[in-house]
């Protein structure tokens, strides 16, 4: 039985093929589910919960960001949980949507001197944790969320994306 039912939507021609993104999503989010279930005792439904991965562009994510967050600018990733969940609670059968903007991911990857796939992997994990109720608006929340991100990324063979940085809290 799969850990997740992943639905893919590609809204920008610059992204890799759907099968490549689906395989990446299965690997990354599957590792996150396994880690959270085994190491953090996060409950998950018996049936594989569904998550939607939307791969879009800066213009589309800017519109969404303006409408839903009042921030009229592009961002790297937005998460929309299907149901409100607190960290550690049993999520519903539909987790929600993770929307990722290609140009921002590519630009940030270059600035961070990382591969696009490594940065995309981090953003998938980050967005997935938001679907499970984790946040980073307060220092204590950011510590927990970023710690989980770092440990999940380590399972995937990636280094700590926050090493040497202050906690990431977007106003």
UniProtKB/TrEMBL annotation:
<protein>
    <recommendedName>
        <fullName>Endoribonuclease YbeY</fullName>
        <ecNumber>3.1.-.-</ecNumber>
    </recommendedName>
</protein>
<feature type="binding site">
    <location>
        <position position="136"/>
    </location>
    <ligand>
        <name>Zn(2+)</name>
    </ligand>
</feature>
<keyword id="KW-0540">Nuclease</keyword>
<dbReference type="InterPro" id="IPR023091">
    <property type="entry name" value="MetalPrtase_cat_dom_sf_prd"/>
</dbReference>
<keyword id="KW-0862">Zinc</keyword>
<keyword id="KW-0698">rRNA processing</keyword>
<feature type="binding site">
    <location>
        <position position="126"/>
    </location>
    <ligand>
        <name>Zn(2+)</name>
    </ligand>
</feature>
<keyword id="KW-0479">Metal-binding</keyword>
<dbReference type="InterPro" id="IPR002036">
    <property type="entry name" value="YbeY"/>
</dbReference>
<keyword id="KW-0378">Hydrolase</keyword>
<keyword id="KW-0963">Cytoplasm</keyword>
<keyword id="KW-0255">Endonuclease</keyword>
<comment type="function">
    <text>Single strand-specific metallo-endoribonuclease involved in late-stage 70S ribosome quality control and in maturation of the 3' terminus of the 16S rRNA.</text>
</comment>
<dbReference type="InterPro" id="IPR020549">
    <property type="entry name" value="YbeY_CS"/>
</dbReference>
<comment type="similarity">
    <text>Belongs to the endoribonuclease YbeY family.</text>
</comment>
<keyword id="KW-0690">Ribosome biogenesis</keyword>
<dbReference type="Pfam" id="PF02130">
    <property type="entry name" value="YbeY"/>
</dbReference>
<feature type="binding site">
    <location>
        <position position="130"/>
    </location>
    <ligand>
        <name>Zn(2+)</name>
    </ligand>
</feature>
